[in-house]
Write a structure and sequence with these properties.
The chain contains 9 helices and no strands.
């Protein structure tokens, strides 16, 4: 009786393990399927954009999902100045504005976010709240006053007419991200550097900044993308 009971228990345990492994495999497969669907859904517009870009203009509305009627005439027309297009110059201008905006936002954002995250002073959270509130103004509400201001300064069509408003949008984003990143860094590293003889500036430069490099790099990408994708203010102040 004891042997039969033990055999039955072992079979039950083995079946339970098989069911658990089956559920685990199905759960993993379901996760991968959902992830694949989301990735395809997100990349499909980009894929269709590339397919259409290389397709002859006469077949733009062709529903064929693969490359067909391939030509480079679309790119020649886009980059040709003979037809009045200045895409190359526009890309260079966007790159200049985006890079300068990102650099200035990082220069001010790194020190500001470090102070808000690591230093204790009164109204610290109030200051952070004001910084974040500055980014909540809709761009459409700023177009008219900015246009009037920069017209009086003869700045319409200049780089600074775009860089200054873009900094006002990118800087709060930079501070918000880096404050969260600096808060997660252990204080003990900085204290150890101070014990070893480093000043606050040396500890920040030699310890904090190398560790914060991934967060700074991520913030730089987001700040650059935000300035690169902005269209409303650029369409009014760059002409």
């Amino acid at each position: 009786m004891t042997t039969a009971t033990a055999t039955q228990d072992s079979r039950t345990a083995a079946q339970a393990k098989r069911r658990a492994r089956s559920r685990q495999r199905w759960g993993s497969a379901r996760t991968y399927i959902f992830a694949a669907v989301i990735v395809i859904w997100c990349l499909l517009p980009a894929y269709w954009m590339v397919v259409t870009a290389f397709r002859d203009v006469g077949f733009t509305y062709d529903a064929t999902p693969f490359f067909s009627h391939i030509t480079l005439d679309n790119f020649r027309a886009a980059f040709s100045t003979d037809t009045g297009n200045h895409l190359t110059r526009a890309l260079v201008n966007s790159l200049i504005v985006g890079v300068i905006t990102t650099i200035i936002s990082l220069l001010f954002g790194i020190f500001t976010s470090y102070a808000l995250a690591r230093l204790n002073f009164r109204a610290k959270y109030l200051v952070l709240g004001f910084i974040l509130a500055a980014s909540m103004f809709p761009g459409v509400a700023l177009v008219t006053p900015l246009f009037q201001l920069f017209t009086n300064l003869n700045w319409i069509g200049t780089y600074q007419a775009l860089i200054i408003p873009y900094i006002s949008f990118a800087l709060p984003l930079t501070i918000y991200i880096l404050v969260s990143f600096f808060r997660e860094m252990p204080w003990e590293l900085e204290e150890s550097a101070r014990i070893d003889g480093c000043t606050k500036a040396q500890a920040f430069r030699k310890i904090i900044m190398p560790l914060a490099a991934p967060g700074v790099f991520t913030t730089a990408i987001l700040a650059f993308i935000s300035s690169w994708n902005e269209f409303l203010i650029a369409s009014q102040l760059s002409n």
